Protein 1
Amino acid sequence: MIYRFFEGLGAYFLFLGDVFRRPEHLREYYRSFLREVDLLGFSSIALVCFISLFMGAVVLIQTAMNLDNPFLADSYIAIAVREAIVLEFAPTIVSLILAGKVGSNIASTLGTMRVTEQMDALRVMGINPASYLVLPKIAACLLFNPILVIFGMLLGLVGGYLAGDVLNLVNTEVYLSGYFMEFFPHYVTYSLIKTFVFAFIIATVSAFFGYKVEGGAVEVGKASTKSVVAMSFTIILFNYILTDMIL
Amino acid sequence: MIRVKGITKSFGKEHVLRGIDVELYPGKCNLIIGLSGSGKTVFLKSILGLHTVDSGTVEYDGRILGDLNKNETKKLRQEMGMVFQGSALFNSLSIEENVGLPLNFFSSMTLEKKLDRIKFCLNRVRIPDDAFVKMPSELSGGMQKRVAIARAIVLNPKYLFCDEPNSGLDPETAIVIDKLIHEITHEFGMTTILNTHDMNSVLEIGDHVILLQDGKKTWEGKKEDVLTTDEKNVVDYVFRSNLFKQMRAALAKS
Ligand SMILES: Nc1ncnc2c1ncn2[C@@H]1O[C@H](COP(=O)(O)OP(=O)(O)OP(=O)(O)O)[C@@H](O)[C@H]1O
Ligand SMILES: [Mg+2]
């Protein structure tokens, strides 16, 4: 078990070595990058917005209930909600959602290409499939995941505000002013660093699982599931490590 | 000419290729025949360098695969085209983009010339213009095979590899595909290596037929010889069905 883990880890780094070869036909990579941005990025916007709105609402309800104290101004609830969303909910939850959506898509796409010999077809042409197929996906995730997380932050804050208003839990004016009090830009930086690392994990781990598939359609499905488990595990682990290091 | 010298390949304990020597001729359809599991696909992929062989060499007009430097390998790769058993079209790209991909990577043609070349190749395999923008999944199996052939010949290769190009097709379409490959081979003087277990293909286009059994070459000859030879391996393989046996007896009498 432990042996197999390290064997897999070694294979993962060898795979990364294959991926990060200098691309020789930049124009083709760029074209493929644009396709990936569309496929992996734009198509996730609606999902991320929906989830963030409701996440923000739930965070507000819980915080308001716990800080239900006449001596505490509603602006303190706003600060608590803001920190929870900016520091943790937006980067980590959104990244986990993307691991499920984008990551499993990458794993199954590459797995299918492997078992239907599309990768061999590239190799016959003299194109390195690891680099040509995976680099644009990594680039797309690194570019777009932070954008999605920022969307997530903003909509989470909007969701919190709306829930407070609709459910009459807070005085909206005081609450809103709280969003702008004691704001540390450093927290956003921390969140975005996390998001970058998570994006890299999502793109490379899922690609690794997809790339290594052997067999047929059943194995592609299995690889996709396994990749989501591995990604979630790694993301949670790095969440801890990065928080310990940066904050 | 492709010269294969004593190649062996095993996966774990399973010896799939057990020392094969063969020469594959230019301007001819070289057919590899054999039962399912006899190692045809592995043989083809070993010649191509998709599998690294355990021993032996493959020589492309004097160039030994594996001994070449990076640029020479790249050049050789551009002289190869391959049609895979399942077509292996890129399913995220349209028909046109599929055929154009090798051009985008390896030719310095202008866009206009590229489009001309793509159109020429697709029309050559009788794909109508209105199908160019379709996705591979929107085409029938036979059409996908033809697109795969177009993609394989778009860089004007010297060597064309086909892994059971007509498997899974109805007999009529199968013959159309066979004939297409045969025509293209002669038209452009390519060295074509084709895997099959279809006797129709053998009798139709087998300029040079190689029988593979248990990872060894057990016979080679022309298509005419297939019906008349007394070689036991061929007789066993070809005349498996009683009908064929009776035909052979009748042929011998007349
Ligand atoms: N990647 C691989 N790993 C392990 N064994 C393999 C691999 N590829 C092929 N084999 C084995 O090699 C043998 C020959 O397989 P191959 O695919 O070459 O047969 P084939 O002649 O092409 O058959 P078919 O006509 O069904 O396509 C089989 O027993 C197969 O199990
Ligand atoms: Mg085969």
Note: Chain B has a mean pLDDT of 90.
Protein 2
Amino acid sequence: MNMLTVQDLRKIFGKFEAVKGVSFAVEKGESYGLLGPNGAGKSTTINMITGLFPPTSGEIHIKDIDVVKNQKQAQKWIGVVPQEIALYQSMSARENLKFWGRMYDLSGSALEKSVDQVLEIIGLSERAKDKVETFSGGMKRRVNIGAAILHKPELLIMDEPTVGIDPQSRNHILETVKRLNNEGMTIIYTSHYMEEVEYLCERIGIVDHGELIASGTLSELRETIGDHSKIILAMDKERFNPEQITESLTTFFSDKDFQIQDQQVMVFHKEPQLILTDFIQSVTKTGAKITSVDIVEPNLESVFLHLTGRNLRD
Amino acid sequence: MKFLWLAWKDLLLIARDKKAFLTLILMPLLLIAILGSALGNMMKEDEDISIKKFTLGVVNLDQGQLSKVLTEEVFSKSLSKQIQVKYYQEDELNKKIKDHKLTVGIIIQDDFTASLMSGEETKVKLLSVPDTVINATIVQNVIEQFSRSIPIEAVVSQMAQPVQTGNQGGIMQEGYGKKPLLNETTIDAKTKPVSSFQYYAAAMGVMFLLMTVVQGVSTMILEKEQDVFNRLLLTNLTYPNYLLGKMLGLMIICLLQVFIIIVGTSLIFGVDWGSSVSGIVIMTFAFVVNASGLGVLAGSFIKTEKSFNVAGMFGTQIMAALGGSMVPLYVFPNWVVFITKFLPNGLALQTYLDLMSGATVSKILPAIAGSIGLGLFFFAIGLIRLSWERRGKYA
Ligand SMILES: Nc1ncnc2c1ncn2[C@@H]1O[C@H](COP(=O)(O)OP(=O)(O)OP(=O)(O)O)[C@@H](O)[C@H]1O
Ligand SMILES: [Mg+2]
């Protein structure tokens, strides 16, 4: 059974079309990622799915409930982690969780138990009594997530839950989400960090300018760019001569297989090990000095680059 | 039940917001202090100003003894320093006052003595020219004191009571637009007079509550633009439940402030708020329903918090002026006073004044019902307007 189906979803703000006919489905137990740069329309799509505002046209079903028509009924099944931190700053973590739990009709010992569990999950049992305003950005984010899972939703929808936080908190959040997914919770996760989506999501949709430009599993998406890896040589400033390097490389590679940018020289190839020595030799021949060598497996970044001609993060 | 937790959360947030909490507690106290110094000065000034002797026109339709005692013993003899009494026919008196030949006149009805002796209510008509409220107030107070000391002291000849000079005169010094040529007041002989101090305490208290409600509604609009509000919308909380919770929170805050104002003014200045505690609590509740209903209505038409604040500021001032918080209601013609009952604060002020002059809960029931009814009416229109707007968004 599909947990969520979205059909031809559109949203027009005034004259601006922020979402232009997006369709996808998420199965029960799956984790689905929406990847896209700033302003791609991820939040707009999420907000329509959660029933915060209605689509201009299109259909959304959560467990066969029409979200546009019966939003309150559909909302019972979902937990939403908004992109912004939506908590009461002068209340403690526990007070916040209790309040939000009550808004989801929890009470009594069930509420207490759930709050304790969630505090455990987000790793803040120790700081439960402290006011949210005294927390670090990462800790606030964790409470922001905690408030969405108190009522044990079947579908957890997260809108960039790791924006602007330290790596440690980020890892903690990613692991938490992974664990929830392993325990059977269906996850929708939006981000513009491809590493996060790669780590967490079985299937991924790439959004740009309000359109879903590609979707599939990670390996399916990789195939769209022909599975090319990238070798990156970082160069020392001294004796670095781009023209000479270009000239030297053209004897081995065709123009579109290599790239010189700033002080980096890059080559794309299916099997990087086979060409590595030739590549390094043609560069050092010019007298240039290499400071490091990197081989990058094909990733979503290169998929996005391939599809749009732009980098995911500008 | 969720609305209870919503209200609780709002109170918790205010209690923890030092600035908001201080405003909540300190403002009423500050108000009381201002009230005290303003009125204190005024009263001192009044003592210095010797009130000029004036002529009181009397129409005595009563044949009994008590009206004679009042006019001859009290007004003519005991108050001879201030008052000269002249007797007229009814038409004559009316004309004199209309022409400003006389400033104050009273008409004593024919049942005056009989009614007072049997402990029934009676009425003395007081006519005055608006500018000379001090004179009218003196006369009014004398009559009220007189009728209250009957029948116990009816036989005793010392009828003269200390005159409370000029209390209400102070209020009238502000300028006001068109004045009616003739100001007619009917004195209910069985009610307690309300002093200017009491009047001001109630009037400013009501104005203060109005400001609190405006403030509350404006934070409601502000909250709509915040992320927590969106999150609330995603929970099982329904919109009416949300509004209910907000109003409950506001109501508790208002009751707390009324409590501070009442306890403060009565402890420090001995202001008598009447004996009906339940009357005051219920009326405050009704007033908050009414005022926040109006606030929600206004809020439903006004989009941003900024424009609401501006509208709220002006609205509060205008309503306060019309509702009697700046110029006493006595100066308005009766039909205006009636119309001001449709303003939340106008109705509340008049009811507080009724309570001060001894009204019981049962007597103010119509006002309470009217206040709550009006509030629910405003509230309903606001809700309809809001849901209409939401549906519009959904189209
Ligand atoms: N209420 C609105 N009115 C007008 N335009 C809007 C509104 N909300 C979003 N937009 C526009 O729609 C586009 C998509 O915005 P959205 O917030 O969905 O992007 P996003 O993918 O979530 O970006 P980010 O990664 O920065 O969160 C943007 O160009 C934005 O300016
Ligand atoms: Mg976004």
Note: The radius of gyration of chain B is 25 Å.
